[in-house]
Every structure is written in structure tokens, then in C-alpha cells.
Design brief:
- By secondary structure, the chain is mainly alpha-helical.
- Helices cover about 90% and strands about 0% of the residues.
- The protein contains four helices and no strands.
- Helix 1 runs antiparallel to helix 2, helix 2 runs antiparallel to helix 3 and helix 3 runs antiparallel to helix 4.
- It is rod-shaped, with a radius of gyration of 30 Å.
């Protein structure tokens, strides 16, 4: 009976530790890395926004293509993370808005940097997508933490049960060993 108890609780503990490990890996790979990619994309978009505000033609002639390549590289990396349904939809919107931004940038350059409103509108849409993705990272990270906490709580519960049963069995064994029945004469 003791052996079955110990094996059962160890199997349950092992399963819970696997859940904790998977949750921690998911938090790092799918949430923290994604959050960093979102920040990097935001920084590139912010550079574009400043260039538009300052009507910085040098930026669009010299640096913009590099920023676009950087953003595309970051998007490719983000695609490798595990996406939720909501995250996937928002990410699709972001990619569509980034494609539209490239077209708007071409029009902006052709207009001799005068049609700023369209640029600001498109940048605003992208910033909203990035903000939404950032919020999703926090929400999903919180869900993963909750999964880890439940698994750890389960491990603690089974450990306590195991300890109490072992104490009970030790007391029963002590009673059996010390019990000396009187012989009838």
C-alpha cells in the first residue's frame, strides 16, 4: 500500500513538474521574446513617426529601407512564436497595416513629403496593433503563470497527503510492534 501511494504521488508530481516546465518555457519563448520583438518593431515605427513629423527626407532616402528590412525580420521572428487565435488575428492586421504603410511611404516620398496625415493615420493603426499584441502577451503570460501555480499547488497538496499517510502508517506500525497481547493462562 505504501509503495502504491508513493508511486502514484510521484507520477502525479512528475506530470505537474512537466506542466510547470512547459509553462515556464512558454512564458519565455512565446511571451517574453514576443514582447521584446513588439518593442523592437515599436522602436522602428517610432523612428518613422519622428522622420515624418520632422519631414526628414534624409531618413527616407538613407535609413527607411533598413528599418523596413529590420521590421520584416522582426515579423518573421514573431511568426515563429506560438500564437493564440486573438493574437493571430491582431498579428494579421499588423502585417496588413505594415504593408499599407510601405505603400503610404511611397506616396509620401512622391508627394515631396507633404502628405503627412496619411502617414500618421497608418502609423497610428500600427501602434494600436502593437499595443494590442503587447496586452495579449501580458494576458497569456498571466495564464501560463496560473497554470504553473495550479501545478505547484497540486504538488504541495499531494506531498502533504503523502506525509500525513506516512506518519499514520508509522504510528500503526509502532502500535503493532509494541502491542504485546496478554496470554491467557
Amino acid at each position: 500500500m505504501v509503495f502504491v501511494l508513493i508511486v502514484t504521488t510521484n507520477l502525479i508530481d512528475r506530470n505537474n513538474f512537466i506542466r510547470v516546465k512547459d509553462s515556464v518555457v512558454s512564458i519565455y519563448e512565446d511571451r517574453l521574446v514576443a514582447k521584446n520583438l513588439i518593442l523592437d518593431i515599436s522602436n522602428s515605427i517610432h523612428k518613422k513617426e519622428i522622420a515624418v513629423a520632422l519631414t526628414d527626407s534624409a531618413f527616407f532616402e538613407n535609413s527607411n529601407n533598413g528599418e523596413n528590412k529590420n521590421i520584416q525580420n522582426l515579423i518573421s521572428k514573431f511568426e515563429t512564436t506560438k500564437l493564440t487565435k486573438e493574437e493571430s488575428e491582431t498579428f494579421s492586421d499588423l502585417k496588413e497595416n505594415l504593408n499599407q504603410l510601405n505603400k503610404t511611404e511611397s506616396d509620401f516620398v512622391k508627394s515631396s513629403y507633404t502628405s503627412k496625415d496619411d502617414m500618421f493615420k497608418q502609423i497610428s493603426k500600427i501602434k494600436k496593433n502593437l499595443e494590442d499584441l503587447s496586452k495579449i502577451q501580458l494576458l497569456e503570460g498571466s495564464k501560463q503563470m496560473s497554470i504553473s501555480k495550479k501545478a505547484i499547488d497540486s504538488v504541495e497538496l499531494f506531498t502533504q497527503i503523502e506525509i500525513y499517510l506516512l506518519i499514520f502508517l508509522a504510528i500503526v506500525i509502532q502500535i503493532i510492534v509494541m502491542y504485546n497481547p496478554k496470554k491467557e493462562s
